[in-house]
Model the fold of this input.
Amino acid sequence: MTTYNGSCHCGRVAFDVQGTLEGVMACNCSICQRKGILMWFVPRESLHLLTPDENASTYTFDRHVAKHRFCPVCGIHPYGEGTDPQGNRMAAINVRCLEGVDLAALPVTEFDGRSA
Ligand SMILES: [Zn+2]
Done:
């Protein structure tokens, strides 16, 4: 178990997240492709915001089940919130927003979200 520090670019949205980062998911859906996000899914309670929740704006589309949280100042999307198929609250961390992570060393699982 490791604690990672993460933030948007300007620091208005900052957090830490606890877990074991063993790999990331790249998705080709309409929003993930545009963001270039590399996702790490953790239970929502493993994500601890260090800045007020309302500092991050929320974007939803389609079925509006996934909340894409982004900084309204610098435009970076550090995480998203949603539920897994069992109804557990989850967070999708944008690993590109974490400090001290060697992105090139992480195995990437491709997810065909465009067809899902
Ligand atoms: Zn920002």
User: Anything to note?
Assistant: The domain at 2-99 is CATH 2.170.150.70 (Metal Binding Protein, Guanine Nucleotide Exchange Factor; Chain A). The pocket of zinc ion is lined by residues 8-10, 12-13, 71, 73-74, 76 (CB under 6 Å). Residues 30-35 form the longest helix (6 residues). The helical segments are 30-35.
